[in-house]
Amino acid sequence: MVQVFNLDTNSFAGTLDPAKIESMEGIAAESFPLFFLELFPNNLFLVMTINSSIVSVVIIGAFFATSIRFMRNKKPDAIKAFKEFRQTAQVVVKSVLTNVNKLMPYGFQRL
């Protein structure tokens, strides 16, 4: 394939600037428990605004989901309000997406 398409491996390799090399050395030097603890954010709302912290948001979401799942069986009355909020939010998001999809042909027409 490489010879058929006349590919060069240099075009696939990225460049590493000194800051990136230093960051990678720092990650390699830290212990696993410290690395694992840094996955959990100190400020949840700040982490949700940063695109590079998706792993932390997924971990927090998994904690919320498992705790709600356990509480659903133990205290269904306490979870009822959260369940209704989730269902209401789901209906609102579906409505917004439906309206956006209805407007998409006009956006493409303007292009």
TrEMBL record:
Gene Ontology cellular-component annotations: membrane
Origin superkingdom: Bacteria
Membrane topology recorded in Swiss-Prot or TrEMBL: Multi-pass membrane protein
Primary location class: membrane
TM segment ranges: 44-65
Compartment(s) where it occurs, according to its Swiss-Prot or TrEMBL record: Membrane
InterPro entries: Na-dicarboxylate_symporter (IPR001991), Na:dicarbo_symporter_sf (IPR036458)
Keywords: Membrane, Transmembrane, Transmembrane helix, Transport
Pfam families documented for this protein: SDF (PF00375)
Keyword Lipid biosynthesis listed: no
Name of this chain's protein: Cation:dicarboxylase symporter family transporter
Organism, scientific name: Ruoffia halotolerans
